[in-house]
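> tool_call: predict_assembly(chains=two)
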Amino acid sequence: MGRIQLDHLTKRFGETVAVEDVTLDTEDGEFLILVGPSGCGKSTTLRMIAGLERPTDGNLYIDGDHMNYRVPQNRDIAMVFQDYALYPHMTVRENIRFGLEEEAGYTAAEMDEQVEATAADLGIVDLLDRKPGELSGGQQQRVALGRAIVRDPEVFLMDEPLANLDAKLRSQMRTELQQLQADLDVTTVYVTHNQTEAMTMGDRLAVLNDGRLQQVGEPLTLYHEPANQFVAGFIGEPMMNFLHGHADDETFTGSGLEYPLDDRLADAVGDTDELVLGVRPEAIDVRRADEATGEREPGPHEFRMQVAVSETHGDQNVVSMTVDDEETDHDALRAVTDGMHVVTQGDSVVVTIDPETVHVFDGETGETLCNRLLETDPELAAVSSN
Amino acid sequence: MSQSTSRSPIDVESLVENFNYRRVGKYALVVLFLGFFLVPLETGIMTALKTNSAIARSLPFAPPAGEGFTLTNLEYAFSQLTNSFVNSLLMAVPATLLNVLLASMAAYGLTMVSWRGQIAVFALFLVGVFVPYQAVLVPLSQFWNNMFPLARMLEPLFAAIPFLQGGHSRLVPLTITHVAYGIPICTVLFRSYYKSLPNSLVEAAKIDGASITKIYRRIVLPLSLPMFGVVFIYQFTQIYNEFLFSFTLITGSNHPAAPVTLILPAIGSSTEGIDFGIRMSAAFLAALPTIILYVAFAEQFAKGLRTESG
């Protein structure tokens, strides 16, 4: 039950292509996250699964049944909307009960019982006789969830359900939603533009950009082995550093930077001329210049830089740096350092980038040429880089 | 001396400071318009309450004094209008209710349900708004008298109803005509309101498994109650005050089914001239139902207008 298959799904609105050729398969009971920047087609994809939009091309199956022409009423799905879409003239009880009324095989008493049980699960029994307008955002959110789960559908669809909550409530609801999904074991498709939500909640993520599916995989796979530069930049906070440049004689030349490519990287680069090097901020080692090398010349993978901004987060510091003797005004690199390791603005630092941590992307297509090596499982990285 | 003036309760200085010609102009204009709208009304009420000789002797807008005051005008006008009040309400209330309900359904179907060709159908509704009544009078009377004489068919039925006569059956085609001609404008009004409702409510109901009719009954209809108030008041006033269709389909003031608008032009005029007291009394009595409606629904009216624009 509840297996969703998208087969070359395409949606066009007039001339605009909202979703292009998306093929995707969920497993039963999976928590799949559609993630991407605004306008990437993730909501349209979800609305096609819901039946609120009709696909222009391609096929959609839920549980093996062809769904393209089936109205939402007959799809056995439940959806949580970003604005919750609670019926303002009904009480919470009536809101939750509304969907049950159409399900076959319930007596009125059973329906009431079901509503009470769901409300108890979500801790909203006290609110049952209030109207949505009298509830806080978090309470409305719970009612919307209650309305979805009371019907025990094959599939849950959630369209940015946490977007309207404040930060604290959001992280709390995040955990609760995960718990709930695990308990119910119902296939869930969850749309968000927030990569933290995506990383923390999903069994798998599907990253979309410009209507195209970029990559599908488990959160850590996407983090360590992005299929292209877009995924690499989208997943991870702060964002991966990208250095644009050329490859000459096993050396990468960017603006104010020269980085020798070791054998692994050089092999992957091959004949490609335009390159983008990607390094995660947390993979960059930053030391104050006087501590690091003293008067010694920096090694091949070390650079002298100047701290432009240092953001303190407590557990970590995010340091933006510019190339030392360079007139460029943009920050060359961002690094994450340990919370106790404080550098201040204007400090001279030595930056070390381990070649094992470097991703290489094709400068023109954005395709990944080579991903970083993982200490835990170097074989996996080696496989994916081929 | 100077001390006592500065302590006077009226702050003359600030009054002078606030004085400017723009303000004076503004207030003068307000007073002018207030007079422009209120004096005729006041004159009408005063005239209704005066005897004929008092009307002739006193200023039109002066209140009746002593001997000049009378209620006979009102009593007479009321006795003349009683029947036509019943006729008017018998026609206008069902016509308005049907009209508003059908228009809201049409607007729902044209706005919140998507189907092929709905723009073309909506265009027809828009055209309907602009059809002048005068242009359809002849076909209308042809249709109801020759092609489909519904009034004649229903005459025996109406004759059997107590307090009514067979002639009252003419109110039925009149009612239907009003419903038909009122739907376009009411549909446009409802449509603009439905456009402003969040789409996700209907979508949520669809996903909850509700059919198109259930969505209308349980979600859209309850949510459009404020708009119902607005459109009901508007349309009731239109139908109640309408003259041409009544004149065409019921023909004369001495017909038993004549509504208020047919009686009004004839009342108070005789060979001796026009009795202004009776005319004014009749006019105010005739306006009473719509005024009551506005007062009763004022709150909902304001709410509906607010939600429509907001």
